[in-house]
TrEMBL record:
Belongs to the GPAT/DAPAT family. Coiled coil: none annotated. Residues 272-399 form the Phospholipid/glycerol acyltransferase domain. Keywords: Acyltransferase, Membrane, Transferase. GO terms for molecular function: glycerol-3-phosphate O-acyltransferase activity. This is Glycerol-3-phosphate 1-O-acyltransferase.
Length: 823
């Protein structure tokens, strides 16, 4: 019963035979008291712990412990005891179902009449359970501050600590019987509010904000009650069953469980934080089901308060969902509560889950990470509140998604519909169509402490101060309040370390994301300009790509279905039913093309795998740039172009450091020209390499990069048209880019509707800001205004040149050689 931060079993036997035993009995009914009493009378404690000593029975209640245990001068062995009730066994599993509720009783907590009946008719449905015991002296040593108060006559804090320790011990014992899936926290709010460190922080807030301490404490208690996920085993069982049809009837879940045994072993020592890619609202249900089937404890899922509407919110909170406000404003109490609760969950080794992209992807590829919650995690590590935490990258990839229409509408400037009961009903109704596979893959776990240290984090805790006047309005993704404001160097080291850790997680997700049949089918059809392909032509596009994937040994789904025309036709027909592909059957044979108006949906599928082809696309454009230059040293020209493209795309994709990027690009070159290393710098001619590139049978630049660079072109031209002295309103500029982008599309200055995307425009603005193209210049500085105007114009000119080069790359692709009008 000594409290541990994790689940390592506490010792159950003591070297010295105790003189007496105190049984702390957690019983709610007369039946439970009778069962415990009979077990004690039959020598249950002596048989289980070898403690053959007089037994005192005591209710597991703080008042009883304060009166009859806290002040004892001997050293009894304290043993928590309760009756565990079990659901009936079905197919080897004991889990509550909706059928059980027909008896108007929770099988895990049956009412007294049901208990009496079960004792006689189903003796296998209950057992007397004991938690790991502890000597009274051990309990005092484990709670020094509460023990110190005993000398002043205040026994209540120590009694509450004993009750909490007993409940935790009983919960652990229960999980040994029912499995880790049912690991749930108890008395969280009470324990946090009893924490001396947290109370000192609240006093500091009260002092620095000149607020009455009682008011600060009351606000903290209210925030905790709003925040803390009060998990219920009954609700968890029923909610899982109720929500499973939302995805189970739609997708066939394909999970690689090879690494889960190692994760379970890690989980015995450290908390796990699952960081999945976020493509659908059902992600949490899919991942939760996978983990439940493999006996992982339920994750505390950190989500936005926008999903806390009735009835989903109250139910989800009972299954471990933590709803955090999207904006904290200047509420220092709420910030303190979030940080404390986050640290508490990690310290108690409850597994967490959040979607570190900050929301669902609108484009299909991984979004840039948000750092707020990772900052809280890093703060817990720096303070040594936890020894370590393991971050688990998780890829969740769908062959098809039935919610893509709404996502495409948002990308093209439409408003996101607010979540609510009507929205939920529509969403569930939309999931009633089969959508192929959903692939769940787990990347290699990352040690937070090890990786933060490797990235230069000093891992030194600094005291917290509360700003007297808050002028900013941080959101849930804002870093925890920091202290030591003058120490900007340390803060910068911490910031960079967290960013690099987030980058590693993103790379870990991409590394295990499989290539799906729909990703390749849309890759083929999006690569031809307003032209339909026959089945044979689609196969001709895909065959060399499939060979390329095999040579690289990339993770993939059931893409062998694309090799035979019959199964390829089935894939395209399924995309047709999803209104992504259109099929014309009125001629000699069916021809396939992207459904008009469905380019954003098609791009979503392609982009789930686009990161696997980025280096190939950059290599192609670099080779073309070298050939066009006519320079004596075309190799240097090619490398310079590759590094410029890497910089241009750094807000869209996760590129490694320069040296590793060079190694990856060299590996791509060796796939094109296996004799690359045999060339000398002098005899390397770009035209010969271009011929080998063409001979490979496919080109990727126009299929992979065009939409991103076209979106950047729209932003660059709108910036170039602006007065450098004017402030840039980002939302207003993005709205303008949507409107002008549609015009450019009608004028055929853009290749595809997928380029007209608020998400892509937002990334382009980040790049422009990073290169100093957004900040206005004062009107009285004519020279600087001219320089900014020139830099914006050069940015637009650079993108127009890249667009022309991509068109030339497209003409080298076999699928486009019959279309001279492509450029």
């Amino acid at each position: 019963m000594i409290e541990h931060s994790g689940d390592a079993p506490a010792p159950v036997r003591h070297a010295a035979q105790p003189d007496s035993v105190v049984a702390l009995i957690d019983a709610a009914t007369k039946v439970e008291r009778e069962l415990v009493g009979a077990w004690l009378a039959q020598g249950g404690i002596a048989a289980e712990f070898g403690a053959d000593a007089p037994i005192t029975q005591l209710d597991l209640d703080a008042e009883a412990v304060a009166e009859r245990l806290a002040g004892r001068r001997d050293n009894p062995l304290v043993v928590p005891v309760r009756v565990l009730w079990l659901p009936p066994e079905r197919d080897g599993v004991r889990r509550v179902t909706f059928a059980d509720l027909a008896l108007l009783s929770n099988p895990r907590k049956p009412h007294r009449f049901a208990q009496r009946r079960l004792v006689g008719r189903a003796p296998d449905r209950h057992l007397v359970l004991t938690g790991a015991p502890a000597l009274l002296s051990e309990l005092r040593a484990n709670n020094p501050e509460a023990t110190a108060l005993l000398r002043t006559g205040s026994a209540e804090p120590f009694a509450r600590a004993v009750v909490r320790a007993a409940i935790v011990a009983l919960e652990r014992a229960e999980r040994n019987v029912i499995g880790d899936r049912y690991k749930v926290p108890r008395l969280v709010t009470e324990e946090i509010l009893d924490s001396p460190e947290f109370l000192r922080r609240l006093e500091l807030i009260a002092d620095q904000t000149r607020t009455r301490p009682q008011e600060v404490y009351r606000r903290a208690e209210r925030a905790l009650n709003e925040l803390v996920a009060a998990q219920s085993r009954l609700v968890s069982d029923l909610f899982t069953q109720a929500m499973r049809p939302v995805h189970a009837s739609t997708w066939k879940v394909d999970t690689d469980i090879s690494g889960l045994a190692d994760l379970r072993a890690l989980n015995r020592r450290h908390p796990l934080v699952f960081l999945p890619s976020h493509r659908s609202y059902v992600d949490a249900f899919v991942l939760g089901d996978v983990l439940a089937h493999n006996d992982f404890p339920p994750n505390h899922v950190i989500g936005g308060a926008n999903l806390s509407f009735w009835p989903l919110g109250p139910i989800a909170r009972r299954t471990g969902t933590v709803f955090i406000r999207r904006s904290f404003g200047d509420d220092e109490v709420y910030k303190a509560v979030v940080e404390e609760y986050f640290g508490y969950l990690l310290a108690k080794r409850f597994n967490l889950e959040w979607y570190f992209e900050g929301g669902r992807t609108r484009t299909g590829k991984l979004r840039p990470p948000r750092y707020g919650l990772l900052n809280y995690l890093a703060a817990a590590v720096r303070s040594n509140r936890i020894d370590d935490v393991m971050l688990v990258p998780v890829s969740i990839t769908y062959e098809r998604l039935n919610e893509l229409g709404a996502i495409a509408t948002e990308q093209s400037g439409g408003k996101k519909k607010p979540e609510g009961l009507a929205w939920m009903a529509r969403y569930i109704r939309s999931q009633q169509h089969s959508a192929g596979h959903v692939y769940v893959r787990f990347g290699a776990a990352l040690s937070a402490r090890e990786r933060l240290a490797a990235h230069g984090d000093p891992l030194t805790a600094r005291p917290i101060t509360i700003p007297l006047h808050t002028t900013t309005h941080p959101s849930a993704e804002t870093a925890p309040p920091r202290t030591d404001a003058p120490d900007t160097e340390l803060a910068e080291q911490e910031r960079k370390a967290v960013q690099r850790l987030a980058f590693e997680v993103a790379v870990g997700i991409n590394r295990v994301t499989p290539i799906t049949v729909n990703a390749l089918a849309t890759l083929a059809l999006l690569g031809v300009h307003e032209r339909a392909l026959t089945l044979g032509e689609v196969r001709a596009v895909l065959d060399p790509v499939l060979g390329y994937l095999e040579r690289r040994d990339l993770p993939r789904g059931e893409i062998d279905a694309l090799r035979a025309e019959q199964s390829l036709a089935v894939v395209l027909e399924q995309l047709s039913l999803a209104r992504v592909v259109t099929v014309y059957r009125g001629g000699l044979e069916p021809v396939y093309s992207i459904e008009p108006g469905a380019h954003l949906e098609a791009a979503f599928y392609r982009n789930s795998a686009v990161h696997w082809f980025i280096n190939r696309a950059i290599l192609e454009l670099s080779i073309l740039a070298a050939v066009e230059s006519g320079a004596a040293d075309q190799l240097s020209v090619g490398w310079e172009e590759a590094y410029r493209l890497r910089d241009l795309l750094k807000f869209e994709f996760f590129f490694p450091e320069r040296a590793e990027f060079a190694e990856q690009l060299t590996a791509e070159m060796l796939l094109v020209d296996p004799d690359w290393y045999s060339h000398t710098r002098a005899d390397t001619r770009g035209s010969e390499i271009q011929d080998k590139l063409t001979a490979s049978g496919f080109m990727m630049a126009h299929r992979v990069l065009r939409s991103f660079l076209d979106a950047q072109l729209v932003v660059a031209e709108r910036l170039a048209a602006r007065d450098p002295a004017l402030e840039v309103d980002r939302k207003e500029l993005i709205d303008e880019c949507v409107a002008v982008g549609k015009q450019m599309l009608l004028q055929q200055r853009l290749h595809s509707p997928e380029s007209v995307s608020t998400e892509l425009f937002t990334s382009a603005l980040k790049f422009a800001d990073n290169h100093g193209l957004l900040a206005p210049v004062a009107r009285d500085s004519a020279q600087r205004r001219a320089e900014l105007a020139r830099a914006r114009a050069e940015f637009a000119a650079r993108l127009r040149a890249l667009g022309a080069r991509i068109s030339r790359a497209a003409l080298l692709d076999p699928s486009n050689r019959t279309d001279p009008e492509l450029a």
